[in-house]
Specification:
- This protein is 40% helix and 12% strand.
- It has one domain: Alpha-Beta Complex (Amidase signature (AS) enzymes), CATH 3.90.1300.10.
- It is globular.
- Strands 1-3-2-4-6-5-10-11-9-7-8 form an 11-stranded mixed sheet, sandwiched between helices.
- The mean pLDDT is 94.
- By secondary structure, the chain is an alpha/beta fold.
- Strand 7, helix 10 and strand 8 form a beta-alpha-beta unit.
Length: 498
Amino acid sequence: MSDLIRLTAAETAAAVASGAASAVEVAQAHLDRISEVDERVHAFLHVDTEGALAAAAAVDSARAAGATLSPLAGVPLALKDVMTQKGIPTTCGSRILEGWRPPYDSTVTARLKAAGVVILGKTNMDEFAMGSSTEHSAYGPTHNPWDLDRIPGGSGGGSAAAVAAFEAPLAIGTDTGGSIRQPAAVTGTVGVKPTYGAVSRYGLVALASSLDQAGPCARTVLDAALLHATIAGHDPLDSTSFDGPVPDVVGAALRADVQGMRIGVVKELSGEGYQAGVQQRFDEAVALLTGMGAEVVEVSCPNFPYALAAYYLILPSECSSNLAKFDGMRFGLRVGEDDGDPSVEQVMGRTRAAGFGAEAIRRIMLGTYALSAGYYDAYYGQAQKVRTLIARDFAAAFEQVDVLISPTAPTTAFKLGEKLDDPLAMYLNDVATIPANLAGIPGMSLPAGLAPEDGLPVGLQIMAPAMADDRLYNVGAALEAALLSNWGRPILQEAPSL
């Protein structure tokens, strides 16, 4: 493995800025790594070799001209295929958008380009971000670099796997119910869901508009902070964008001090139903936090057990509305127009039947039912009331503590195919991550070690009040340093199965 792909994003940026390595050399090293391993991992749906090398050459030219480079200039990145990038295929993991090349950049993409970040390509995902394993992609599953027979999490398994496999030091994911944090947990990487509205959703193909949030994937907390700072900030193109200062996430990651902080362990998000090794590593991390001078207390959030049921009414309802535009009339796939003299309705029906996969159809149908006359109040309306109760639980908890913690996922990565025929078992993978999305607060997953039963990564989740994202990075960086000291090496010093 090339020494250049072992560098963190911060180290890569420093090497490019100092001239120790050119951005083109860095980009080529990562493109070579993709060529070497991605046939087995399948993290990427599209690799933009020409565009990546051109962007890297532009960074080198700017440096040669004496320009001041941004903190991530020349650093390669993998972009989840739910974010638009002008002229580059954007499929959302679905056949219904196969071949679509957007005529515009998402705000996140535009900010990455402006910062000199080198976009390597688009990563695989569950169709329209609906899934917890990246097995619901129309283009085949992504494999976990720790064990190629296991899932990399979802829906953003491609982004997490690309980072874990050293194909990119950074990636962009999106998190609707855990789709950044759960893949981070099972691949041994760092994933952050910022506060809702802190990162623009313009150009993010919507699944559930009140839940979706783009955020960083990385191998270190500092790298995630640098990417967070690059993409965050108000955007007038997004009506839900927060118009206020971005918390100093980079400064918090560098500070890394939990002395005197109050940290709450969420009673309802650990214990029964959690894999023994996951719980063991979590308990060890709690002990480390106490040893670093934090006061750790148990906090009860009594409505959290209802979060999963509420989420799987709210998300399908919004999905049913958002995905109605994929009808074969405006862009993407069109099926059946040459079959006799079909009506518009027939073409729409045939296109949607051919273009959407089973999980997308399941959620569209569920959401349409929940929003239908006679059922709206009983299902969608009641779910929104539960959402309010969960937000109140968080508000009460943050009156007592600075941050909350829990395991990120109840188990380590399971085998590919193991839960495909049991949607409820699949949905339970997000039981610990969903509450943060319902309340709009930020959350981070970072590696907490390897489970003793199977040697696979375990994730620890940190949650903070809205627009207090800096607390995630402060606690996360402190815990990361303590855990690395315990292990004696980074968890991802090598990609184990590659």
